[in-house]
Amino acid sequence: MWTSRVLRLPRKPFSELDYARHMPEEYVKNVQRVVPRKVWGERFGAPPIVRWMVHPDDAVPSSKRPWEQDELQASLKRQNKYHEKKVSRKFLELRHSQTKQISDQDWTFFMGDQVEVLVGKDKGRQGTISRVNRATNEVYVDQMHAKLVTKFSDDELKRLGVSQTLIWEEQPLSVEKGQVKLVDPNDNQPCNASWKLSKAGDEWVRVSERTGFEIPIPTQAEMTYDYAQAEKYIDVEGKDTPADEVLRITFKPKLMAFEEEIMESFGIKENRQRKPTYWY
Amino acid sequence: MFFRIINRIQPCTSQQRLLSRSPALQNSLLQQFFDDEENFGKQELRAKKRPGRSWTNEELRLKSSEDLHKLWYVCLKERNMLLTMEKAHKATARHFPNPERLDRVKGTLKNIEEVVHERNDAYYQLETGDSASAPKRTVTSFMGFTYEKRAEEHYSPPGEGQKGYEVPYLDDDAYLMQKLWNEKELCKERDRKDNLARRQLANDEMKHYKRGGRRTFDRLEDLKVYQ
Q1: Which residues does chain B have with pLDDT short of 50?
Q2: Contact (CB<8Å) A226/B157
Q3: DSSP for B148-179?
Q4: For the segment B116-152, what is each residue's pLDDT rounded down to a tens digit?
Q5: Domain boundaries, chain A
Q6: What secondary structure does DSSP assign to A61-78, as a single string?
């Protein structure tokens, strides 16, 4: 009953649109190294003692994705430092992340959105969001707010014998600090947006607070690590189960335990009686 | 034999050819322990070669018990394959491409267990009134902690002192232990609050010059940070 009632509620796009939507939580924790190194449990009721790889308070959200190579290296470095200090019984100040992720309901920026940059040398120019980082409340705007960087140090360039090459690298723009604003499609002016239930009450829409006009969500916002668009996802041969096969209902309720049902399907007959056991 | 083959995994194509010619990979049964040869030594798999997300509980609830049983073994084989590949890549100090595949398969396995448990639980609740999960008992340990403990199954009834119980009044040792424990926890909490206040007080300049916090206060309002 509760499930059907919940299913009838309007779906919330703001809690579904996420690039890392299908990344397993354990995997993300593992690449951030926020996993226990050792747990001393079974302490006769006293809470377990946990030695972390990287202490959860020390995991600071970064502008890169946690599974990217650079970020992984940084996490491993921090992990070693933490362990080193622990072993030599020295004090290591944990970084205690200062940024607090904006809640789903209050977050209105998605990939492919038209935004206006309000700071820096591109102040007043409009562009599309190329990447969103929810953990740090930052967005990257396509070809805006970029700086010239070189990927190699001088020593490396000398060693390789190549001349220096500079590339433009986009810098993050903070939503929290109001460095970007969404563009209202009605008058092409920057605006604050918020999520509202539509008049029919069956859909959450993003509206401009100034004019009340709807700002439609671009299709690019659907993009995750696995696909650009959910409908255009191609099943991997021999690995993925096709969607219609997944949704085919084969469940038939039987008054049997799972094990008994499997035994029946394999034709295994068991006549022996179970002896009583004691739980303590 | 296994290790010799595994050690040959290298990103260059000549090595790939070497591997494919090895008898182990021509054997179709043994081949199931290995990934597709195209994926060997890649930094990241192409989108076409990257399997999707794990099964959710909602999807698994649609499936019959036989289907779940089959799916369990399909996923178990996939997990074994991935573990083989992970070990092979680690042994040769290579980057194992897309390690999240392993977590996805493990997620499916966990979800299947959950759904099977749900079904068994419903059946046993209906038939016997007991849950399918192992019973829990509240016991008091010799240190005076009262906690939930998962009961274990035994063939014989409990002997003298084998079964733990919840004790309303602690003996002298346990009582003292609890007193000291609570005192220590209180001190820890006080220190934690102190540290939090100091962190809130510290600005960038203080961090840069490694300067401590304020020591003297003229007004009571300033002291509030420390309370």
Answers
A1: 1-19
A2: no
A3: EEE--EESS---TTTS----SS--HHHHHHHH
A4: 999 999 999 999 999 999 999 999 999 999 999 999 9
A5: 2-87, 104-230
A6: --SS-TTSHHHHHHHHHH
Retrieve residue B51's tokens. 């399997």
Sign of CA dihedral B110, B100, A174, A128: negative
Q: Which residues of chain B have a CB within 8 Å of the CB of A252? A: 64
Cα distances (angstroms) measured from residue A187 to each of A114, A119, A193, A196, B16 = 13, 21, 14, 20, 58
Cα gap A23→B61, rounded to integer Å: 22
Q: How far is B149 from chain A (nearest CA, A)?
A: 9
B28 touches chain A (CB under 8 A): no
Which residue from B minimizes the CA distance to A252?
B64
Q: What is the pLDDT of residues A183-201, one digit of tens each?
A: 999 999 999 999 999 888 8
pLDDT above 80: residue A202: yes
Residues of A engaging B, defined by a Cβ cutoff of 8 Å: 22-24, 26-27, 30, 44-46, 67, 96, 226-227, 233-236, 239-241, 246-252, 254-259, 261-262, 265, 275, 277-280
Phi, psi of A264 (to 5 degrees): -65, -45
- Assign a CATH topology to domain A104-230: SH3 type barrels. (2.30.30)
What ipTM was assigned to the predicted interfaces of this complex? Answer: 0.89
Q: Nearest-5° angle of CA A280, CA B109, CA B126?
A: 50
Residue of A236, A251, A277 with shortest CB distance to B62: A251
- A90 torsion bin: left (phi>0), alpha (psi -120 to 50), beta (else): beta
β strands within A134-255, DSSP E = 138-141, 146-149, 167-170, 173-174, 180-184, 189-191, 193-197, 204-208
Return the residue of B nearest to A278 by Cα: B154
Taking the alpha carbons of A246, A248, A252, A253 in that order, is the dihedral positive or negative?
positive
User: ∠ at Cα B172 (B167, B175), nearest 5°?
Assistant: 65
Instruction: Starting at the earlier edge strand, list the strands of the sheet with A126-133.
Output: A173-174, A138-141, A126-133, A114-117, A180-184, A189-191
